[in-house]
User: Fold this.
Amino acid sequence: MARLKESNKTGIVCGETALSYKQWHQLSEELNNEGLRNQRGKIVGLFLPNSIAYAASYFACLYADKVIAPFHTGSTMNELLYTIKHCGISILITTESHFSQIETLLHAHAIPMSIIVVNDNAEIQKKVALYTSNVSLDISIEDELNDVAVLLHTSGTTSRPKRVMLTNQGLLNNIESHCKSLNYDDKEVCLIQLPMMFGYCNTAQFLAHVYLGACIVINPNPFMVADFYRIIEKWGITNFTAVPSILIALNHSNLLSYDISSLKVICFGGNPIPKPRLLDIIRKFPTIAFVQTYGLTEAGPRVTTLPPSRYNEKIGSVGRAIPGVELRVVDTLGQPLEKGAVGEVIVKSNGIMKGYFRCAEETMAIMHGEWLHTGDMGYLSEDGYLYIVGRKKNIIISGGQNISPEEVEEVIATCPGIIDAKVYGVYDDLLGEIVYADIVADSDNNEILQQLKLVCEENLSKYKIPRRFCLVDNICRTYNGKIKRSAKKVDECFDQTDDNDNKFGRERMV
Assistant:
C-alpha cells in the first residue's frame, strides 16, 4: 500500500462507493491514528462483513504493527469467545449491528477489550473500553508472533478451531507465485464474493490485487446471478473466484442482455465439482478461462493451478504446482511414492505457515521439517499433474478397503435429480465400517432411486456403493462450501442391504 498511498487510481469499490488508493490509505491511516496506535495488545480481531471497513481496518492494523485475526460474521458467540480467549485478543473492530451482542458476551465473561465501532465506510462511530485495567502484554505471544501479519481461521470443522500464522514474507511469496501463474497485472479488476477472511480470498484476491495496484470490487450482498452479471458489466470485471456452488448456479442461469465480455478468468476450488457439470459450464461460457486451483490455508494458500488449455486432457486434475512450490505424494511412513500411486500430498514452499498459533503439538503433527503434510490424498501423473481423491481423515475403511467419500459423492452428484450428497462410514461388526450416504433430491420417487442405483453400479466398485441412502433436507456445509462431516440430520433412508439382488428398499429411520 505504501507505493500506492498517493495514487488516484480506483483501488476499491463496494456497492456504489468507489475509493482511490489515496482515499483508502487515508481511511486506514485515520483509523490507525484515532483507534489503534496507542492501544495495548498485539492482536486485533476484525468482526466485519465484506466491506470498505474491512479493507481499511486490515491495513490500519498493518500500519499499527498489529496482527490481524479476522472473523466470519456468521460465527457464533461461542466461537468468538473461544478464539478471543485462545489468542488473547484485546482489541476488536466491529460494526454497530454486532456491537451489542459482542459487548454482552464480553461483560458476561469479564473479558478486557477495547472495541472500536465503525460504519461500513470505516468511519469510527465510538470506542468502548471494557476492563482495561486487567490488560497485560504476554511476552511469549509477542515472540511467537514475530513477523506474523495475520491469523487466519482454518476452514475445517473441528470443535477446536485453529489459527494459522502467515508471515509478511510468506504472504508475499505466495502472492507473487499466484500472480505469475495467472499472468495477472495492474489492469486487473477483481470481483470479491467469498468471505474476505477466507484464506483464498485474503491472499489470492484481496492482497494480490493490492500488490498489483489493480482494482478490487466487493459485492457485500449474498450471491445472486443477476447481480453478478450487472457488476461485471458496470465495473469491467476481469477475474473472479468461485466455489463450485456458484459455478453450478451460473450454469443454470440466463445471461439476458448483460455484457460480460470483460471477464476473462474464473478461478475455482474449495471442494469437488462433478466433471460433467464442469464441462457444461466451460461450454456455456467459451470466452472465459475456468482455472481450477488447489490450496489450503496452511500453505499460504495457493499450491496448484490447472490452466484451461489442459482441461480436455487433464479433466479431474487440480493442475501443477505454481512457481516456488514443490509437491510430493508419500506413504504412511513419509516416503515418496511412484507416479500414479495414491498417498498423502505434502507441500514445500516459502509461503507455508509459520505454524498454528499457540498449538505447538498440532503444528508438529503436520509440519515435518520443511514439508507440510496436507491431509489430502492424491496422486501425481507422469508429467506432474496432481489429482486429489479425498481427505486422509475422511477415508472409510471397509473390509480392509480404503474408500474416499469424496469419490462416491462425485459419482452420486452426477445422477439427475440429486441436489447434494454426503458420504460417511458407519461402524460395522464384520467389516469395521460400511458406507452410508445422505442425499438431497428434488423429489421423492422411485425413478430417482433406480437411476441412482444404476449410476453407482456403473461408476463404482461394489464395495464403494453406499449400503444405505438417507433422504435429508440439506447437507450442512462450512462458509466456503466444505461438507461438515460431523453433522447428520436423517429424515428417511433408502436401504441397499440385499446382496443377492442389490435392490433399493425403503424404511423409516428410528
